[in-house]
Input
Amino acid sequence: MMRFAWVAGLAFLLAGCGGPSLSTDNPGTPPPHGGEVINLPGGKGHVEVVKKSPSASGGEVTFYFFKDSTTPYSPAPTSGTFTSGKKEITLRPEGDGLTTPAGPAILRGGAIDGTLTVELDGQKLTIPLGVR
Output
């Protein structure tokens, strides 16, 4: 019995877990808009965070919502807020995403720290962000 367990363990290690191994040479399909992907709470999909014109003094950010890695939410959220500390910024629709208005900067040194709040599929979601 002990020999069987040892052979089975060795076979498992040699065969792997059945999925493709990760490689830094091939990290997978990049997000559609070139941003950073954050998982939505409850396994409801992903939000892609795209920094526009980042600078030390700020910049704009657009958020895109996906059911999986390639299927956008339809309809996409048409309103939402970004909150960082006591500062709350109302987002506006732009194309198939939500963007910060020109003016208030939410990027500080290229980082986005705070929470994004939107209604998605009839449910209010609060999404913690910590994008560097």
Observations:
- The chain has a mean pLDDT of 76.
- The two ends are 51 Å apart (CA to CA).
- The helical segments are 2-15.
